[in-house]
């Protein structure tokens, strides 16, 4: 069985080798990471039991990416917070929240790039403006994360409230975001 409803099936053998049934070739975790980046849909199955092990293989890819480079995406504080939700009553809410947040983040990123390209095209100015905008999206993600943490505190009153300094920093980030949006609106009106 080479494909399952448009998805590429990757078989993982006991010797840890991964076999792409769509191309009839062996692949590595790095190859799978590139497939994800290209938007290719695949599932990973244990070759013997045909159990779906996609989640554990994708987690393994993230682990390798985090340990391979000095540029980690997952801050320690995020990892610690995530671990606290295992076994918590909010555990079933976290995956959908994270999925929604990443989807919104991706959509905002695409919209901002499109607006910069419309306003400035492929000029050096347009390319230089994209970097601060990408950084601005991180502040929105941080604001979403803070809102999530506040929502979690409502359900778990024993969690420690955020420090005043952290709240002030996040308020500053939100103010910067508002200023960024105001400037972006001015650019759009030009």
- As for the number of domains, it is 2
Q: How many β strands by DSSP?
A: 5
Biggest pleated sheet: 5 strands, mixed
Query: Considering DSSP H and I runs of 4 or more, what fraction of the residues is helical?
Result: 55-70%
Number of helices, counting only DSSP H or I runs of 4 residues or more? 6
Q: Give the integer mean of the pLDDT values.
A: 78
The helix/strand class is alpha+beta
Low-confidence region ranges: none
**Computed CA radius of gyration, to the nearest angstrom:** 21 Å
Terminal CA distance: 55 Å
Shape: extended
Strand content: 5-15%
H-E order: EEEEHEHHHHH
Q: What characteristics describe this protein?
A:
alpha+beta, 2 domains, 190 residues, 6 helices, extended
Please render the helix and strand layout as text.
Elements lengths: L2 E2 L2 E6 L5 E3 L4 E3 L1 H9 L4 E5 L7 H15 L7 H9 L9 H27 L3 H32 L8 H26 L1
Parallel strand pairs: 2-5
Antiparallel strand pairs: 1-2, 2-3, 3-4
Helix pairs in contact: 1-2, 4-5, 5-6
């Amino acid at each position: 069985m080479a494909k399952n409803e448009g998805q590429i099936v990757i078989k993982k053998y006991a010797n840890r080798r991964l076999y792409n049934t769509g191309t009839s070739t062996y692949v590595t975790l790095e190859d799978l990471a590139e497939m994800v980046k290209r938007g290719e849909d695949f599932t990973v199955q244990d070759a013997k039991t045909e159990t779906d092990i996609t989640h554990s293989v994708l987690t393994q890819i993230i682990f390798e990416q985090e340990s391979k480079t000095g540029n980690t995406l997952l801050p320690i504080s995020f990892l610690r917070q995530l671990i606290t939700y295992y076994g918590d009553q909010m555990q079933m809410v976290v995956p959908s929240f994270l999925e929604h947040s990443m989807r919104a983040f991706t959509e905002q990123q695409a919209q901002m790039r499109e607006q910069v390209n419309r306003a400035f095209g492929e000029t050096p100015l347009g390319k230089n403006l994209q970097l601060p905008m990408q950084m601005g999206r991180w502040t929105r993600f941080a604001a979403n994360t803070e809102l999530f943490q506040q929502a979690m505190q409502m359900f778990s009153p024993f969690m420690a409230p955020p420090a005043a300094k952290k709240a002030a920093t996040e308020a500053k980030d939100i103010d910067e975001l508002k200023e960024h949006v105001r400037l972006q609106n001015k650019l759009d009106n030009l």
